[in-house]
Amino acid sequence: MLPDEAGHFGPYGGAYVPETLMTALQEIGEVYAEARKDPEYEKQLKWHLKEFAGRPTELYFAERLTKELGGAKIYFKREDLLHTGAHKINNVIGQALLALRMGKKRIIAETGAGQHGIATAAACAKFGLECVIYMGRVDMERQALNVYRMRLCGAKVVPVDAGQKTLKEAVSEAMRDWVTNVRSTHYILGSALGSHPYPMMVRDFHRVIGEEAKEQILEREGRLPDELCACVGGGSNAIGLFYDFLEDKSVRMVGVEAGGHGIQQGEHAARFQGGKLGVLQGTKTYVLQDPDGQIELTHSVSAGLDYAAIGPEHAYYRDEGRIDYTYATDEDVLEAFQKCSQTEGIIPALESSHAIAYALKRAPEMPKDSILLVNLSGRGDKDVQQAARILGEGEL
Ligand SMILES: *Cc1c(COP(=O)(O)O)cnc(C)c1O
């Protein structure tokens, strides 16, 4: 399947990087291809996903939520139960093992919400790798708890003060470091974004989500779900869930982007609502930009979805009509965040609450015997302080 040799998903994807990085990308591509054919690598990956990360994750029937909404049966794929609190660890373990294979002892990464940062810091501690995390200063303030968790695991967290001081600037800083230290350093990119082979590789490391979900729902219900939904930042948890269902034409798939304060310029991060074809940080895809091609400001209550570009593979499946995309506003997301906590006793990440917000609207429109499977990409512990502030509970 896709991408082609040069990393294209139709017109999207590819590799737009300085010459110095082309060799590194090629090396990663080769080592990756080799590793995936090596039973020893697969065995190790599987083992660490089980022993360190906690796979397989449960498929959970949200019984009270289902009853209350009175429509489709709602299931949660519980990626929130994974070590360090989100799906991110699937990809991080895979790439850390590649770094060891390449003999690279220094790891760099960028992080928005801090979830990719903490997953990377934890894996580096476990595998004895040096770890440097780039993070926008605004995100560091929004996610102070995760910053401390990273430091506890021995990572160096470097604040980034350029521009909007969020994820985009952190990625640029990580790229700059990589160009300088490429011989000793592997860059663990945190989503299905960036230059080839990252979008493909990150997707593959998350495919386990969909593989497990499919097996679990077949065992539980004896049939495929009618619909899948997942939040889409760069798009890794979504493509991870969707990928193994792409050929199952009866299964509808919906990606939910960050609608922020609503679809006005600078107030959201929904790339398919007003974004245009462009190149950002190594890949060609839908990008929020002004008519001069300047990257637009973005906003979302969830740092993990607050990014101006979407993974190139999503742009492809949107063109194909295979995956539908919508958005949820901050307001709907905060409501879903509380609703899920109160009805199921599960506090979801604000990112994942985008998918739940969609499910709250969608399930009642679906027949009672139908199945809606929601990817619960992460847990909300990191978000409770921010939520309390916004919901008027004051500082915790
Ligand atoms: C990082 C993150 C996301 C967004 O990233 P994707 O690559 O789009 O999955 C979503 N949910 C959680 C919990 C995250 O930590």
CATH-defined topology of the largest domain? Rossmann fold
* CATH class categorisation of the largest domain: Alpha Beta
β-strand amount: 15-25%
Q: Termini distance?
A: 49 Å
Query: What is the molecular shape?
Result: globular
Alpha-beta content class: alpha/beta
- Major β-sheet annotation: 6 strands, mixed
Low-confidence segments:
none
Order of helices and strands: EEHHEHEHEHEHHEHEHEHEEEHEHHEH
Second rung of CATH, namely the architecture of the largest domain: 3-Layer(aba) Sandwich
Radius of gyration over all CA atoms, rounded: 19 Å
Please count the beta strands (DSSP E, at least 2 residues each): 14
Please report the number of helical segments: 14
Mean pLDDT reading: 96
**What percent of residues adopt helix (DSSP H or I)?**
40-55%
Q: Which ligands accompany this protein?
A: pyridoxal-5'-phosphate
